[in-house]
Amino acid sequence: xxxxxxxSLARLDARFQSWLIEPISAVIFFDLAFWDDGxxxxxxxxxxxxxxxxxxxxxxxxxxxxxLRGFRHGVDVVRxxxxxxDAEGEIxxxxxxxxxxxxxxxxxxxxxxxxxxxxxxxxxxxxxxxAGFLGMSAKFAEVTLAQMYRERRADGxxxxxxxxxxxxxxxxxxxxxxxxxxxxxxCVMCIxxxxxxxxxxxxNQAFVLLxxxxxxxxxxxxxxxxxxxxxxxxxxxxxxxxxxxxxVASLLVPAVxxxxxxxxLAILALHASELPAAFATIVRGAFSPExxxxxxxxxxxxxxxxxxxxxxxxxxxxxxxxxxxxTSEPVRQGLVALLEPFMDTVIVCNMTGLVVVVTGAYLxxxxxxxxxxxxxxxxxxxxxxxxxxxxxxxxxxxxxMISWSYYGEQCWTHLFGARSLLAYRALFLVFTAAGPLLAxxxxxxxxxxxxxxxxxxxxxxxxxxxxxxxxxxxxYLARLRAGQFQRVI
Length: 489
Prior knowledge:
Layout: H1 2-28, E1 34-35, E2 42-43, H2 47-62, H3 66-69, H4 71-78, H5 93-104, H6 107-120, H7 123-148, E3 151-152, E4 158-159, H8 162-172, H9 176-213, H10 220-238, H11 241-270, H12 275-287, H13 292-311, H14 318-322, H15 330-337, H16 339-358, H17 371-381, H18 385-416, H19 421-434, H20 440-453, H21 455-464, H22 466-481
Antiparallel strand pairs: 1-2, 3-4
């Protein structure tokens, strides 16, 4: 019976790849004619990666390096220094940040970094960090717009995100049909992303690591048991909506991230003498890999692609959570949001990359790739830590799934109405249970396609509306300098 089920799943994976992933990939990740020196074959440069790089750089320059100028004020807002009693919303700025971080802090930071290093070498870490730095400006822009165009539904809940500012914002600019079409495309991509990268991939990689540390769980029976258990736990939270998600995320994210960071910092402290060499290896790999021209492009692609999947800056997902934050100033929440890529990529991803490099795990052929490489790196210094990492991965995956369920349901509601919300939640839980049963590569590719594909419609709207953001930012900073905002002690 188990062999028959395994054959059926293999056929399903093949059809999933040929019927869905390959056609969409041909559109989103088309080749822009970059080749190496002939030793490694043709390099595919995803168009969406170019779009994300160009947009993030544009926003950084357009807003005069707001990723640096607004950092300290963003921290003050998260600490509750500027939340007034007249602000409207459903969750606090900190809870909104936690919910958005719950969706980004996860397997992208643990498995994604190792995958990038395994494919592109240590130099990919450099480009991930740079992508995170530039992504702070993109995150600020899209979240500010989400607050500007959010709506209060008839049931009293707030709804906001790219689908709102694409439709309403572009209508203001005389492009109502373009805005409506882009909003629909974004919603379709976001729903796919919530089921793929925000759900199935999380469940899949959690199963992979659990099966590694607990061999009896390996096999179809273990995969099904873990999938069903995750589906049950996710269902208990998502039925409560954004308030429940924000509450759970604000508890889970600091605890799990703190545990993971403490372990990483302990390893780096034990390898303190090797850190300068590790940094040098990363920088050398970023600019002078073995195949100089094609290799450099390949390392850059891996770094930016995995960073985009990790922090989702420019993809339009986080604005959905931030639209529910309690604030009377859209720019203020945008400044909170720019902390996400910093925490997610500049800090956590960079630490993971350094651990993989200083321990030499990326050179060990027995270490595997993805989550297995990270687990090997940690366990080589802290014996038994693979069990702690397994717990961290489970909690990271869980936090990511509950946040992405909210993203998907907001887009589902935008397309089909609130009355059909139960159908989406049921579908989400079915995909949660199915995640461990599918091939990891197929699930990862589908998640990449959907989440990165969201950037196409989202960034069109954000770029076209960047002038409105700039005016609001200048006005807000002028009032801040004039002392017009009362600090909360």
